[in-house]
Amino acid sequence: AKEAGRNQAQYYSRNFHEQIEKRARLETDLSKAIDDDQFILHYQPQVDVDGKRLVGIEALIRWQHPQLGMISPDEFIPIAEESNFINELGRWVIRTACAQFSHWLERFNTAEIHFSVAVNLSAKQLKDKGLIDYCRDCIEHYKIPPKRFELELTESNLVSSLDAVDTLNELAEIGVELALDDFGTGYSSLSHLKAYPFSILKIDKSFVQSAKPGQDECMLKAVCAFAKSLNYKTVAEGIETEQQHKLCAELNIDRLQGYYFGRPSEVDVIEQKWLA
Ligand code: C2E
Ligand code: CA
Ligand code: CA
Ligand code: CA
């Protein structure tokens, strides 16, 4: 047993060492990855309550590392956030999503645009003094209807930056919509919620996924009722089954998102399935 314990300790320390090496490598490689075109946005559909009509598209970043393969944002966004690189990366995301959106608006000749495009923002980007002008310029340059462009911020991410309210208000003044992501999992005080200019609450997927008829669906119901009573638009994420769709439909959640309707995928796939 002692021997096994030692082996295990060695295993963990080797593993730990490997993790540190990988992290250091990602840190170095990140800085070149924009110029080398290694980032790509995948797009995930959001549908109405019937599950039929496309009402939104969320852009989710991926890193195609030349040696390490596809790396998830959960792995590299925190590294990017530790340096100012997140600002440059965040601008790339905004610019790329706007360019794609304007392409859709032209190509699909949507006289009456019926869907929004959403990007994720790191709370750290709110400290970037040029962010507001950058967003405004992108939206103007690509002729995006501001109401159709959404910025998502996570609740837990916001807690540490209470001065974010001013920046968020300035962003809202551009006319874009602000969504509070992963709602229900952070620690923000509910009484402060109305001080922020959010118009959309994205109910965290844990509420959808723990909902079983008769028992845990109470939590989803409660969060949903709360959001609706304060007049927020509601989005449910992480819908993977027909049953979860049914439940969200009964609760009349405005928009639904999850693998059941479509995984985040490359532009072609979204276009074929939803825009053709
Ligand atoms: P998020 O904004 O909460 O995005 C939802 C995550 O849930 C995505 O993971 C998505 O692929 C995944 N997802 C969607 N439908 C389902 C489902 O039915 N079941 C399950 N289990 N998962 C589902 P992803 O793409 O790996 O992104 C992880 C997180 O990374 C995002 O969470 C977001 O916080 C962050 N992120 C992604 N793109 C960006 C970006 O461009 N900028 C910043 N700052 N953060 C980003
Ligand atoms: Ca999001
Ligand atoms: Ca989320
Ligand atoms: Ca999340």
TrEMBL record:
Coiled coil: none
Domain spans labelled EAL: 23-276
Name this protein carries in UniProt: GGDEF domain-containing response regulator
Organism for this UniProt entry: Idiomarina piscisalsi
